[in-house]
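Q: Hi! Curious about what PadR family transcriptional regulator looks like structurally. Here's the sequence.
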Amino acid sequence: MASDEATGRTPEAHGPLPPATFQILLALVDGERHGYAIMKEVAERSAGAVRLGPGTLYGTLKRLLDAGMVAESGERPDPGLGDERRRYYRITPFGLAVVRADARRMERMVEAARQKRLIGLEPA
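A: Let's find out. The predicted structure is below.
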């Protein structure tokens, strides 16, 4: 089990993650993205139910950078695409462990809701 080198905290100790934090880390699992691309993916994946404003996005990214869950990429994936001023972000191995731990936590909650017949084929 990986731990945060700065604090010694395990990935599980960082959860539950705030929704914006989970959404941003989830968007970075597939590869590097700049801020606008993160906002766009989150909005598309949630069918518009979750919209990250610039303040939420960049404030959360700063906290994720400080926590070692996200790193700023030194090089853009394709220099021919996009604005040169854009900053690209990538998830770190520790960030991946944290978002995985939180996804497993949510999976257990969903399973408990299914067992209580709150969701599934025959809801109560």
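A: A fun detail: The first helix runs from residue 19 to 28.
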